[in-house]
Amino acid sequence: MTKDATIERPVKEIPSATMEAGQNSGQNSRQNYRMLPHNLEAEQGLLGTFLVDNRSLEKVGDFLRPPHFFVPAHQRIFEAIMVLVERGQTASPVTLKNYFEKDEDLIPVGGQEYLAELAASVVTIVNTEDYARTIYDLHLRRELITLGEDVVNESFAHTLDRDAISTIEQAESRLFKLAESGEIRGGFATLRDSVLTAIEIAEIAYKSDGHVTGITTGLRDVDQKLGGLHPSDLLILAGRPSMGKTALATNIAFNAAKKYAETGGKEGAIVGFFSLEMSADQLAARILSDQSGISGDAIRKGQIKEDDFRRFVEASQKLAQVPLYIDDTPAQSIAAIRTRARRLKRQHGLDLLVIDYLQLLRGSGSRQGLENRVQEVSEITRGLKAIAKELQIPVLALSQLSRAVEQREDKRPMLSDLRESGSIEQDSDVVMFVYREEYYLSREEPSQKVSESDEKFYERHESWAQRLQETASVAEVIIAKQRHGPIGKETLFFDPNLTRFSDLDRQHS
C-alpha cells in the first residue's frame, strides 16, 4: 500500500508480468521489458476503502470509471461496487460474494476471499481523492502510450484514404479528447457564486461605452441587440450570394481586432479568420480598401492616383498593429479547424473565430457521398459548437441559404432556408441573416406589359424607382434566433465600393 494509508496487513500480491519476466530471464530482461504504468497498492487501497465505507465513493464517483483501473479484477470489483451503490444497496465482501463466486478474473488473486482481504487490510484512509487521482493519472499515461503506438503504426501504414496530415489531425484530436477527459473539475456551483459572477458581467456592461458584455462587432445597433459576441456561443451569419456575408464578417472581425489594438487588449478580440473561399490577399485588399477609403474596384483596375499610395501606406501601418490572423487553406476538415484554432490560441491568443463559410468545410470522413452530406454538416456544426465551448470563444460561421428564397415574393430569409441541415439552427446560439432589398430590386426593373397603358406603366416604374432609391446602400441584419436575448431586425448602411457595413444614421447625419 502507499504511505498515506494505515494498513493492518498487506493484501495478497498479484502476480505481475514484471516479476515473471525477472524470474525467467534475469536482470537484463527486466531492464528491457517495461510494464505499463500502474499502482497495484493504490488500487487495492481504494477498493478496500469503498468496501468499508460506501460513502467514500461520492468523492470520486464523478470522474473515476472501471477502465481506469489497471488490473481487470479491480475493474470488475469497482464496477460491481458502483452498481450496488447506485441501487441503494450496501457494497461489501458479503453482498458481492455471489457476484464473484465463479469469476475467473478473481482466481489469480485468490477468488472471492480477495474481497475480504481488501476490506480487512484497511484501517483508515483519509485521502481517497488522492488515491483516485493517482489511479486516474496512471490511466492517462497508459492511454498516451497507446496513442503513441497507434500513431507510429499508422505512420508506417500507407493507404489512399489516410495521408500524413490526416494522421496528425486524428492524433491531435485524440490527444485533446484525452486532455479534456483529464480535467477533473466541474460539479455544482452555489447560487451565491453564480450571482456574483452575473453581477461582475453586468458591471462590465455598465462601464463599457456601448453597454456591451461580449466582444464588440463595431456596429452599434447589432451590439445593442446581441450584447456583443459571447464566449462559447456559435453564431451563424447566413444569406444568399452577393448579399455581403463575407463583407459583414470581415468588418466584424476587423472591428473587434482593431478595438483590441486601440485599447491594449482591454476590449475587442484577437481574431482568427478561416477564409475557405477568398484568398488572404483578397481579404486584406478589402480591409485596405475600407481603411484607405479607396474603391476596391479602382485598386484592382489600377485606377488610382499617386496620392492614394500615401493613404495606402498610412492604412497599412495601422493594419500592422491589428491582431487579425487569416488562414486561407481551402477545403479544410473540422478536425483541422479545431487543431489550428487551438494552435493559434496557444501561440498568439484567440478571442474570436470566424469561418467563411460552413458549407466549404469537410467532416471527418474522407469520401462521403451526397446522401451523407446532411450528416456531415451536422458533424461540422457540432464540431464548431464544441470549439466554441472548448476554447471559450465565440465562433462566427457563415452559411449559404437554399434557393427557396428566390421563389418567394418576399425574399427575406427565414430559418427554414438554412441549407442542407436542421442542425445549423439546432446547434447555434444565434442565427443572423443579411439581406439587401436593393440587390433584388435593381434586377427587377419593370417592363411595359402588352395590354398596359403608358400611364399605368410610368406609375409602376416610378414606384419601383422610388423604392430602389429608398433601399440604396441599405442592408438588414435579421436576428432570427438568439438563445439569450430578443430577435428582430437592425438596419445598416452598406457601401458597395468599399464593401463596408456601418451604422446607418452616421452616414445620413
Keywords:
two-stranded antiparallel ribbon; 9-stranded mixed β-sheet; DNAb Helicase, Chain A; alpha/beta; Rossmann fold; 2 domains; single chain; disordered N terminus; elongated
Summarize the structure.
This protein is an alpha/beta fold and 509 residues long. It has helices at 17-32, 40-52, 72-86, 93-96, 113-120, 128-156, 164-181, 191-207, 220-226, 245-263, 280-292, 296-301, 306-319, 334-347, 373-391, 423-427, 437-441, 454-471, 504-508, and strands at residues 6-7, 122-124, 234-239, 271-275, 324-327, 352-356, 395-400, 430-435, 474-482, 488-495, 500-503.
Structural overview:
Helix 6 runs antiparallel to helix 7 (164-181). The longest helix is centred in the first third of the chain and has 29 residues, at 128-156. The protein contains 19 helices and eleven strands. The chain has two domains: 6-181, DNAb Helicase, Chain A; 213-433, Rossmann fold (3-Layer(aba) Sandwich), CATH 3.40.50. The protein has 509 residues and is an alpha/beta fold. The strands form two sheets. A nine-stranded mixed sheet has the order 5-4-6-7-3-8-9-10-11, sandwiched between helices. A two-stranded antiparallel sheet has the order 1-2.
